[in-house]
Amino acid sequence: MAKKETDKKTADALRDTLFFSTKNQWGERDADKRDDVFRFVEGYKAALDAGKTERLYVEFSISRLKEAGFKPLASFDSLKAGDKVYQTVRGRGIVAARIGSDDPRTGFNLIGAHVDSPRLDLKPQPVYEAQELVLFKTHYYGGIKKYQWAALPLAIKGVVYKKDGSKVTIDIGDKPDDPAFCVTDLLPHLAKDQMQKKATDVISGEQLNVLVGGLPFDEQNQDIKDRFKLGLLSLLNHEYGITERDFVTAEIEVVPAANARDVGFDRSFIGAYGQDDRVCAYTALEALIDSQDLSRTALVILYDKEETGSQGNTGASSALYLHVQHEIMKRMLGEDPSVSDMHANHANSIVISSDVTAALDPNFADVSDQLNAAKAGHGIAVAKYVGSRGKGGTSDASAELFTAVTRCFDQAGVAWQSGELGKVDQGGGGTVAVFQAETGMEVIDCGVPVLSMHSCFEVTSKVDVYETYRAYRAFLETMGTVSDQSLFV
Ligand code: MN
Ligand code: MN
Fold first, then answer.
1. Cα 358 to Cα 369: distance, rounded to the nearest angstrom
2. Which helix (H) or strand (E) holds 269?
3. Distance from the CA of 143 to the center of ligand 1, in angstroms?
């Protein structure tokens, strides 16, 4: 007798059981749930517009935390369950915490994102005059495609300290009446040689000079030496009270001038500068603000300097962030934690290294392994590892941790997908995970998939932004220790 053919229904059911696949989350939502998504991202867009530099984003975060009843850590002698605190790290990083009811030695739940983004920094002596134009010389910060920064409206933001020590804030280019700034590009008519260059050299680093002025000091007197540079510096002195010397010690960043926009006829995406990694910073902090009834203490850390390798005392490798963790523990315990207490806290803490990953792009699908790439619209992307050339420079989460975190997401009904940054040997990248892992804390990377990452107009799916917020909230509220792995308590 011929073997009975499996009917299609049975095979489909079996496939559903045995295969792993993720779904586009727009299809998984009815209209009122969609409204939740659209409402949530309005706050995010406002955060992007307010916080285009790490300093501005930290300022924005402080105001958000204050609104939500968080107070500076230094104002507490002791901390008890329900207390809400924050501590800034030299104005460019911040730690915010909600105290839980558990003993701190059983570990914290932490989410760490970064709030610096690729940009152009002014050189110490930026001002020069050439062909009767005044320009600022820059040194780019982080991984950029330099040609993307030409012929684009730019804004200038930063802090300048005058000779007497007083502080001047510069923030110009974003308000409707502000002037913008730009790096000029070569007209195609004369670009025969330029168009033959490699993309890395189409605009060179030393050509990233920003046009900032063109009025001479005295229109009537052409004999004045350096009259265009003098014109600009006298204007700046009048407006800000600064001199050329003050630029040497200043921290001034040049960023794209446009605000965050909805993208698409259906407004399903957000396009904006600086979504890497403020999309994770925003969702993490909102998750902390909204989290309730915590047993484990929840921390959100926003780091600086990730885009240049996390070095420097505001980067994730800085001990200052651990010192804040120590100070929180001290106030919870009512005494200085012993070295063993701190070791126990680190060994039992679980960290989400909260950073963006590449979304599968139909224009460049060949750089991704389509089976393992994150898809825009499919929820938060969890990455077991990042790194490059044989997982170099990665933390690589354990099976135990990956399982525990995704079970936490499943229980909360959060849409998650696995995401790998590009094909093997295609390139790669790092995150703060390796620095957090140095203390022994359990660390896993997860965050929002992004199109056009590191460009002046990065794109995210609104539904992914919202799912990431839900994932982080579930993590902060319900993540417990990884099974059977409690150490030193
Ligand atoms: Mn990042
Ligand atoms: Mn980045």
1. 11
2. strand 269-272
3. 11
Q: Residue 289's CB: how many other CB atoms inside 10 A?
A: 18
- Name the amino acid, one letter, at 44: Y
Ligand nearest to the CA of 448: 1
**270 neighbors 462 (Cβ within 8 angstroms):** yes
Q: pLDDT of 43-85, one tens digit each?
A: 999 999 999 999 999 999 999 999 999 999 999 999 999 999 9
The ligand that comes nearest to the alpha carbon of residue 144 is: 2
DSSP line for 67-115? HTT-EEGGG-SS--TT-EEEEEETTTEEEEEE--SS-GGG--EEEEEE-
**Distance between CA 255 and CA 274 in Å, rounded?**
9
Reduced to 3 states, what is the DSSP secondary structure of residue 461? strand
How far, in Å, from the CA of 430 to the mean position of ligand 2? 8
C-alpha 307 – ligand 1 centre gap (Å): 7
Q: Using the 8-state DSSP alphabet, how is residue 304 labeled?
A: S
d(CA 54, ligand 2 centre) in Å: 13
| Mean confidence (pLDDT) of the chain | 95
Measure 117 CA to ligand 1 centroid, in angstroms.
8
Q: Which pLDDT belongs to residue 1?
A: 54
| Centroid of ligand 2 to alpha carbon of 114 (angstroms) | 9
What is the value of pTM for the model shown? Answer: 0.96
Domain boundaries, the chain: 19-117+273-484, 120-256
Ligand at minimal distance from the CA of 432 is 1
3-state secondary structure at position 287? helix
Would you say domain 19-117+273-484 falls under CATH 3.40.630.10? yes
Give CATH for domain 120-256.
2.30.250.10
Q: What is the distance in A from the centroid of ligand 1 to the CA of 359?
A: 13
Cβ atoms of 415 and 23 within 8 Å: the answer is: yes
